[in-house]
């Protein structure tokens, strides 16, 4: 019989005859997803959500583990009658017996061989008739975020969060059990760091009013301090915070797999990361498992061949010098060049409209050079009377290919071709290709010039490569110093980066003081620490959200990190569901002794 | 030969013949702690800190894994001479051969059977002659916190952090591998919650200036929303934040083992917690491993027998009624009572000075009642001529015992005896006793009266026990409703708490609106969620820092949580090492559009 039961009353006995791990401590005998023909004849109690109903006698019940069909027999007219009232997404408990579906096996459902012959339905919690979204149905991203608790019921979200949980668990097992790493939690309420423009501020309470904690962008200082503290091998799945405003697909809080070890070197850290990734590779993605060692390229070669320090190796095309073929594009300047990238089989995918859009995107950036796109099937390229056939032969351009030529200052040309290489690949669908191409980029410059002064290419704690160490004191040649920094790139996305750190306090002080001319008093505790017996050390951090997004996309770079986070923020940094951030009460403001000087108008959310 | 090498240069080859997991990726053949007589004759490279030196020929090298003695042979006069310069805590690399110590075995050292005959010393990083503290040496807590990177090198801190890491790992293994739980990260930047007086505020950037994120005191809302989202079994080692000012041994950020599951009940959650604790029990504490099921007591019985809802069962004494024995202490009031607690073998530990101190402590609290302390050896107790011998016989008071008698209002009497029971036990050293007594406290009241109105005893999401559900609508009897809340107490410390939640949106709305009369608009998203098909669910949270403190103290409740955290805050909420919180820059204030109205004078730190 159908029992309406919307009270907190709930059956009190825990069944101990659980058939799988998920049923221990639970008021059910089985999950919806686990029933097979081997269960035929078994009495079951299931709890879950009403996914679907048909002809007032069939229904599909769904829980976290799958779906199963249930059937109300003819001798239960009362149940059949009352089933009409049941709303989708209501929580039900069904009791019944597992029967064979006979000839009506549904091969698309894992439980499709069986159905439940129901003898009791218990309505545990009723959902409204009109739902803002049905799990798995179409809905705008704003609706999905506002009703995240419904969106989380979709199989895709369930699978993603479970894959993430399992991945992190397997990383931990590798690090703790196979490599002796120690999981250490570091503070989230910390102090401002130099240049920490992107740090959230937390006004401190009495007796520290007028001061702020900062939320750390990474546990960088702490992990180095742990090395000084002799912890030797540290890791943490660390929450980090970065206030970058409304950047596409960036979250104000994100997670990194953070690790550091002592008495190691660049080869050691690179090997560790390769082992970590291969050993924790998700079982459902077995066919994509990478082989170690991963490919490796120097920063300079990456720029020359791909026009970027994070090349997507799913794209086979490389940049080629074309100065000799197009002498009319060169000027007298020593940095003047012409180069091209031949995009095989790309011609058919590219319309003039797309070309115009690329032109617009490239020209928006001050680093761009002039460029032109030619179709391999066309007989004329530039207005000038080149021997196009010979050029095509020399560059190996087929009639289905596109050739992008850029000319001007070398740096700009490489930048432009790097961008165009990605754009054309995107147009051809190559960026959605399900393939995983890991790549190490090494030998980055330690410093880069910005507005006439040197700044750290990554951060001021990176050590120079041994051969370049002496150049630190050579003001003229500092720009050519290579850092012991390494980036891990997957399909053109920077998955993470790391470095061997400066472990000598005097050297660190010199870099901060003399080379970077930063106020190092803010880092005096770290410099002091390095002076008190710091071991040589280095580490790495993987952007976990991005990594999971690439995994669930099987390499497709268009999956948003928001799909990998249970409760993400919108583009404007809001939690659309709870309407965070909220206006603080006067009591709260008084407690922390601050007031707002500027208040933004509340804008409407537009996240779709 | 001794090589001074304070550059970033460091040997580049990673030795692959590592003898233990800790040596993979590391520039060493062995750790200092692993060498045994089986290694005699082996050529080793070790890296670590100079712990000790003697007679310019012996030194002790320490790393994260232990210590080993090294010996500079006579044929290395240059090394012997230069060893004099080496400062303690400098980082060294030693190369040499493992030799037997022969008759000079040091049985106190795990590596005491061997020593290294050194043929090369490489000074990797020099420490200063004058150290603010030596790892393991005496130092004030302020010094230990300021130079935490030195303090972390002490074996005690190393062991604690490793025990914590392993404990958490084993909890994860149990939850993920044996119980199918999913590790889900929930946001740290969230919205204000009703009554969230203790929440830190984070001013939001553009376009949300004028609004604040709040740092959550627990993931309570998120874990319930995950249940609504069908996640079924969630856990997280969650960072939580609570601004409680300068309370002794409280940290503004702390960690809890947070979990929630659907389709369960109180028995299910209690069994889960028992299994979790027993299965993840640290191997080094094997002799303390508890047996499940743990003891259980109702809130009312706990108050009656122990005068507290978190009794320390290491203390064998119980409160007894004594109204009949001391009729002269009673008044006409119906709540008037007299009761006592007999503290066996406590008489010798208690001086008059201690008694005065207890009196002062008890009287500070408005909940206290009058009390008197009598010595079992004394012949006279009260001035009135009682038959003391008979009373002692009836109460079973021996001559080495103390008897604490309290009288007045029953609630105050129980409170006073509960406090005195702990005080006397503390005086006898019972609170430092190495023993682990777990206890469940159940059947708490759902609401308590505060200033004439009902408030939630724990939080407004707790469901009433089924039998009391109907009383929600009975205004007169609401105070007698029991909640499905359960606390886990270890040695008188509340280790954690949990409850079965209200899963019905209408009931939740009624409790917030009608009973608690709270502004429930702040929780409208949660109420909405419950109305969209929430399953029955419940959960728990363990205070991890406190649990680890009790574990490393083997039950001793006097170990501070600061001993379990790598970088704790001081009593005043400061990071003494980095001097956080810091004064924000004007640029930071401008970015978030706020200004300080109140600024505290910088007080000096006093943490010892």
TrEMBL record, chains A, B:
| GO terms for MF | aspartate-tRNA ligase activity; ATP binding; nucleic acid binding
Keyword Ion transport recorded: no
List, alphabetically, the GO terms of the cellular component aspect.
mitochondrion
UniProt keyword terms in alphabetical order: Aminoacyl-tRNA synthetase, ATP-binding, Ligase, Nucleotide-binding, Protein biosynthesis
**What CDD domains does the entry give?**
EcAspRS_like_N
Top-rank lineage group of the source organism: Eukaryota
Enumerate the InterPro entries for this protein. Aa-tRNA-synt_II, aa-tRNA-synth_II, aa-tRNA-synth_II/BPL/LPL, Asp-tRNA-ligase_1, Asp-tRNA-ligase_1_N, Asp/Asn-tRNA-synth_IIb, GAD-like_sf, NA-bd_OB-fold
SUPFAM superfamilies in the record: Class II aaRS and biotin synthetases, GAD domain-like, Nucleic acid-binding proteins
Instruction: Identify the Pfam families for this entry.
Output: tRNA-synt_2, tRNA_anti-codon
The Aminoacyl-transfer RNA synthetases class-II family profile domain is annotated at: 161-568
| A single GO BP | aspartyl-tRNA aminoacylation
NCBIfam families according to UniProt: aspS_bact, PRK00476.1
The family this protein is said to belong to: Belongs to the class-II aminoacyl-tRNA synthetase family. Type 1 subfamily.
Q: Which HAMAP family match?
A: Asp_tRNA_synth_type1
Protein name from the UniProt record? Aminoacyl-transfer RNA synthetases class-II family profile domain-containing protein
Species for this entry: Mesorhabditis belari
